[in-house]
Amino acid sequence: QVRLVESGGGLVQPGGSLRLSCAASGFTFSNYAIYWYRQAPGKERELVATITNTGRSTNYADSLKGRFTISRDNAKNTVYLQMNSLKPEDTAVYYCNVRYRNTDYWGQGTQVTVSS
What are the percentages of helix, strand and coil residues in the chain, rounded to 5? Predict the structure, then answer.
């Protein structure tokens, strides 16, 4: 079955960096775009970044351009989210997502907390 497992979250000071990973299984990874979302307390889940199946095309939420970078390694069935210059407002649970056969699949999420 489709499985997504996020990792790499944690507590970081403002201005710091983290790299999140999303390990996928249960489908042909190289055929599908992958999405990173986040959800802050009391807020709706929002789209952070997308990457096409080949990795040649990426897209970001306007507020995050220049700070976050999405990438993938199809040989490892893994997508990454490099987050730099982190701000307290980046605090959220980060999820990866794939739409496989018209069904959305989500990982369990990884908590990112930006605080001094």
Answer: 10, 55, 40
- CA–CA distance, 64 with 61 (Å, rounded to integer): 5
Closest CA to 51 of 103, 96, 111, 112: 96
Q: Are strands 10-12 and 110-114 parallel, antiparallel or unpaired?
A: parallel
Q: Render each residue's pLDDT in the chain as its tens digit; 116 residues.
A: 999 999 999 999 999 999 999 999 999 999 999 999 999 999 999 999 999 999 999 999 998 878 999 999 999 999 999 999 999 999 999 999 999 999 999 999 999 999 99
The Cα 101–Cα 23 span in angstroms is 19
Report the candidate in 48, 81, 83, 43 with the shortest Cα–Cα distance to residue 62: 48
Closest by Cα among 79, 102, 81, 98 to 27: 98
